[in-house]
User: What shape does this take?
Amino acid sequence: MMIQSLFAPARCALETLVRLLFPPLCYSCGVLLPPRCHAVCPECHRAIERVFPSDPLFTVASERLCADCSVDALVTVFRFTQGRELERLLHQLKYGNAPGIGVWLGEQVGRILASNGECRRIDCILPMPLHPVKQRERGYNQSGMIARGISPAVGARVYTGIVRRIRHTASQTRLGCDARRANVEGAFAVAPGRMRDIARRSVLLVDDVITTGATMRSCARVLRSAGASRIVAASAAIADLDRLRGGDFPSEKGIPG
Assistant: This one.
């Protein structure tokens, strides 16, 4: 404790110097962030469309996820809309080496979990796994960054390596509902010797964007078979399928993927 207190002023001075030399900018619009803000400026934050449990979009997504009893509940924060602030943020998170965006998004999800009391029922947090090839290319798992942002609010540990993506699936971007479901079938497995980590435990399964829910359900079924007692799906956003139909899908590097 004494050593930490001695180094605290130096750390504070270093952080101030770094902020002066490399002022933090909003990942969405590029403006200088005010003090105590990171990743996103207040204006862009307010502009991102929220989604609430009373919204029809939330109801449809929740019913779709919970239809086969693989998922027990859904927690999400934003509505994904093409060409808006959230799409720019998610694109940078996935392709722009900006993991801080994921942590910020996770903090927003964590606030919802804390406010509705759901956090009291979570034993462990699992990010949706990437295939090892894709994770090496990206340098990190964007869902893992979101999970890291959620963890302090929930008071539960983030576990990695419990569930693995064992098949390198094609991009979901331009696939319809049935094709997405077939694409991720059999793509996940619980790592050998890790079943004890989730057996009889309540799991928060985290992804960046839920579109049809096919990926989330496929992974949840594997966790359920391994003994998870309860699975809550958490995402930064859900996509409005009506806005993405008819060939109006995002570009190949768009979101949702």
Remarks:
- Residues 14-21, 246-255 have pLDDT under 50 and may be disordered.
- The first strand starts at residue 73 and ends at 80.
- The first helix runs from residue 2 to 21.
